[in-house]
Amino acid sequence: MVKFRENYYADVRIEDRSRTVIQYQDGNLQEFKTPVEVRAFLRVYDGKMWYYASVTDVAHVQKTLDRLYDAASPNPDIEKDPIVSKLERNRDRKFIFEDHSVRNIPVEEKQALLRSYLPLLSEDSACAMPIGIYLDRNSVFTFRSSLGADITYDYQTCGLSLRCSMAEGEKKFSAAWQRGCTRFEELKGLTDEIRASMREQAAFMRESVPVVPGKYPVVLSPEAAGVFAHESFGHKSESDFMLSDESMRQEWQIGKQVGSPILSIAECGEYPGSGYVPYDDEGTKARKNYLIQNGILAGRLHSGQTAAALEEGLTGNARAIDCTFEPIVRMTTTYIEPGDQTFEQLIAPIQKGYYIKTISHGSGMSTFTIAPRLAYEIENGHLGKPIQISVITGSVFETLGLIDGLSNELTLLSFVAGGCGKMEQMGLPVGFGGPCVRVSEMNVQ
Amino acid sequence: MDKEFLKNSSRSVTLNITGGKIDSYREKEQTTGTVRVYANGKIGVAGCLGEPDEEKLTAQAEKALELGIPYVSALDGALERTRDNSAEIVPEKELIPTMQAMLDEIGKECPGFAVSNKICLTWESGEYRNSNGRNLKSSGSSLAISLLFQSRGSGNLMDAFYQYSGRTFDPEKVVAGCKTVYDAYNTPAELEEGEWPVIISAGELLGQAISHFVGEIYVSGASLLGGKLGEECFSEKLSFGDDRNSATNPGSFFFDDEGTVSPEDRSLLIQNGTLKAVLTTKNSAAKFGLPVSGHAGSAYDGVPTLTMQGLYVARTADDIRRIVPGKAVYVMSASGGDYTPSGHFATPVQMAYLVEGGRLVGRLPELNISGDFFDILGKNYLGAIPNTLANCCPDSLMVTKLQVTK
Fold first, then answer.
1. Are B286 and B75 in contact (CB under 8 A)?
2. 400-439 in A: which are within 8 Å (CB) of B?
3. Do A270 and A278 form a contact (C-beta atoms < 8 A)?
4. DSSP class of residue B321?
5. Residue A251's pLDDT band (boundaries 50, 70, 90)?
6. Up-side HSE of residue B299: CA atoms within 13 Å toward CB?
7. Rounded mean pLDDT of B42-48?
8. Does residue A365 have a pLDDT over 90?
């Protein structure tokens, strides 16, 4: 049991992380490991500075914590500090994956499942160098603070990432399919879906033609819309970027019109999936936060430090990629809320535009960028031929104002490979999604 | 039985800056150990966090051979080499006051910028041994200063930045570098659309094209470079590869995770315009009949895979004026560009500056750049210069002609 000292704020976060990594390349086993790592991250705050340390041997937690205390200065009023007084004192034990933990599934079963899908990556004559990866992670987090917070909860994801190269003459394509979820059972029975995806990508390789660059109406799939929400506005909602410049508060006043009146973007760590964060890394309980509601700036994401500085409430978004970093303001699951149209109704009025079905990556500051993997022409209200597009881009605020249609179904997506990067902390698991989203004009290159 | 032993240790102290003030201090320390054994065309790997017990790891690695992971590895022969680039850059006890004093000066020189992000002092050491008598040790210390600037009132996440990396510390140089960025940021500039020389980092220009250099992709036929190994398919001014030379990549080790050592500690993929190698481990090189390129990396508990420690581009001039006497566009930060399967590159540029007379003269509005992969590195490639136009880093910036649109 950790002993906290009086006159300081301190917390200790420990993660017991169990993973499975099985990888095949070209039919050969390439990686097979089941590491279990336990790490801790410690924070001490004296009202002036934060002192952090990461520990790989939890037997050293107390010794390291004492060293941080020695570096800090005692502060009898620490509990009145604006940051400390914001922090929650939750006490909870929340295990939602215990009855289907991937720790309890024999590794041979995971390997057999992956092997069963590998032949699908070689069915088309253009396919080469198939790569199949099975990944899972089950973590048990404990968080204790000098304020009395005492939380233990579990986190779990599992999934498959399948890739292959496709080449036929001068035509080339990198095909990819990924599924992330929280139950191993959900990874079974996907043969038809994977086969259909590989066939579609082979057809894309053979039939796609380069886009004529220009400005066009664009319809985003839930995957592309989720990345768009994350990159275009999610990062702008991380309020640590408002700390250094006080004039930002004026620029980012709650209630300001920032998008189309049909647009609402929400954020919540409660959904099981890669963005599941029932308690953030400062012990704050997850809640649903609107970033934009009906086109109006409705809220932003906070850690204790940013909530205190901006005199707003906590949101449950202080996160670190693991116990080697301090928590900073990050997203959990970010999504656009659905509208009332069918997909067919969305594309019907478009004479010439593009449908972005899957993506390779995205990024965003004042301009957002999405690199599509599969994209299709929309002509006279119908989907047409496959199109090669390097990037779709636009000014964030202009584009948010140009959203003029939303489909009526919400799809939330989870991932087991990749993740969100912010400064030094790369690969944070997040979830995202949305309906299909129509934008009246985007720059397509 | 062939055997390799690796041990890596690192310690870092990182300061976080908010609004020009240091508000946190973080210490990280980690040691990892790895043993790999090879028998009958298979590999067994064991790794640990913390001080490694070689005997115990060896037994675990031998047990892991039962997993049957195929791996061809011809261990390199005996070589003893130790390199120590450790030096006291800033006394650790004086790190906070020293850096705060520098930040205060930046605040005075650049009053319209709100400054944030990190300063990191790192000590690293790596050791590679194998059963053929190869014994390599590399260690060093480095300082990285990464400052983000928000122009007060802009409402943006970031408007400009400054980076320093190296093994010395000259606060006046850092302050002067920040002032150069500040002055250029506050001077609006214009440039008409068209084809212009563009100065850009290798990461921004080629980051999404690295997959085409991967050995497995190369032999699959899906690489843009398919069949071109040994061919002169780029400008003869271009030499490009992985940088393990601490002079241009501070903190790097001079050997890869399979003990491969390259001439001048740089594993070149393109040499004077000729595609000399693609990215391989010893296993993929043997499997596909490709040269061993020296690009093996690995998790401490994992089978070797591919890595690049830093992108190296051979300099062709010390001053941009020797390459471009007139105007050029400096890309401080692009934004997630990519290549189509046929090699068309496009990206928006969020922070672009006009360069003239060898220096930044003003900030350009956001723009877009595009070009074809082979033209970018071929007929349009102009050369490479030191990364000192705005930053102070020991790597190089590429200069190539690209289409610039608004």
1. no
2. 423-424
3. yes
4. G
5. confident
6. 13
7. 98
8. no
Query: What burial letters (b/e) apply to A177-186, b meaning 16+ CB within 10 Å?
Result: bbbbbbebee
- Those of residues 95-154 in B touching chain A at CB distance below 8 A are 114-118, 150, 152-154
Q: Is B157 on the interface with A (CB under 8 A)?
A: yes
Of the candidates B115, B220, B346, the beta carbon closest to that of A165 is on B220
- pLDDT, tens digit (0-9, with 9 covering 90-100), for B94-107: 999 999 999 999 99
For residue A418, what pLDDT is reported?
Answer: 86
Instruction: State whether residue B302 is helix, strand or coil.
Output: coil
Q: Does B264 touch chain A (CB under 8 A)?
A: no
Helix or strand holding residue B198 (H, E): strand B194-201
Q: In the predicted model, what is the mean pLDDT of chain B?
A: 96
Written as six digits, the tokens of B264 are 């001048």
Complex ipTM: 0.93
Q: List all residues of chain A from 127 to 146 with a beta carbon under 8 Å from chain B.
A: 128-129
CATH topology of domain B2-185: PmbA/TldD fold (3.30.2290)
The mean pLDDT of B62-89, rounded to a whole number, is: 95
Q: How far is A30 from chain B (nearest CA, A)?
A: 6
Q: What is the DSSP letter of B24?
A: E
Residues 221-240, chain B: which have Cβ within 8 Å of A? 221-224, 226
For A183-193, how does the pLDDT look when each residue is reduced to its tens digit (9 = 90+)?
Answer: 999 999 999 99
Contact across the interface for B156 and A25, Cβ inside 8 Å = no
Q: What does the domain layout of chain A look like in residue ranges?
A: 9-207, 214-444
- Chain B hits for A170, CB-CB cut-off 8 Å, are 342
Q: Is the pLDDT of residue A249 over 90?
A: no
Residue of B111, B82, B124, B93 lying closest to B20 (CA atoms)? B111
Q: Which CATH superfamily is domain A9-207 in?
A: PmbA/TldD superfamily (3.30.2290.10)
Nearest to A397 by CA among B151, B369, B157: B157
Locate the domains of chain B by residue range: 2-185, 188-406
Mean pLDDT over the full length of chain A: 96
Supply angle C-alpha A309, A313, A317, rounded to 5.
Answer: 90
The answer to whether the beta carbons of residues A414 and A159 sit under 8 Å apart is yes
Query: What is the pLDDT averaged over residues B355-382?
Result: 96
Name the one residue in this structure whose structure tokens are 């022409």: A377
Chain B residue with minimum CA distance to A369: B336
Backbone angles phi, psi at B153, to 5 degrees: 90, -5
Chain centroid to Cα A309, Å, comes to 26
Q: What pLDDT shows up at residue A364?
A: 80
Q: Do B69 and A236 touch (CB under 8 A)?
A: no
Phi, psi at B259, each rounded to 5°: 75, 15
SS3 track for chain A: CCCCCCCCEEEEEEEEEEEEEEEEECCEEEEEECCEEEEEEEEEECCCCEEEEEECCHHHHHHHHHHHHHHCCCCCCHHHCHHHHHCCCCEEEECCCHHHCHHHCCHHHHHHHHHHHHHHHHCCCCEEEEEEEEEEEEEEEEEEECCCCEEEEEEEEEEEEEEEEEEECCEEEEEEEEEEECCHHHHCCCHHHHHHHHHHHHHHHHHCEECCCEEEEEEECHHHHHHHHHHHHHHHHEHHHHCCCCCHHHHCCCCCECCCCCCCEEECCCCCCCCCCCECCCCCECCCEEEEECCEECCCECCHHHHHHHCCCCCCCEECCCCCCCCEECCCEEEECCCCECHHHHHCCCCEEEEEEEEEEEEECCEEEEEEEEEEEEECCEEEEEEECCCEEEEHHHHHHCEEEEECCCEEECCCCCCEEECCEEEECCEEEECCEEEEEEEEC
CA distance A339 to chain B (A): 29
Residue B396 phi/psi, 5° resolution?
-120, 160
Please count the other Cβ atoms lying within 10 Å of the Cβ belonging to residue A95: 11
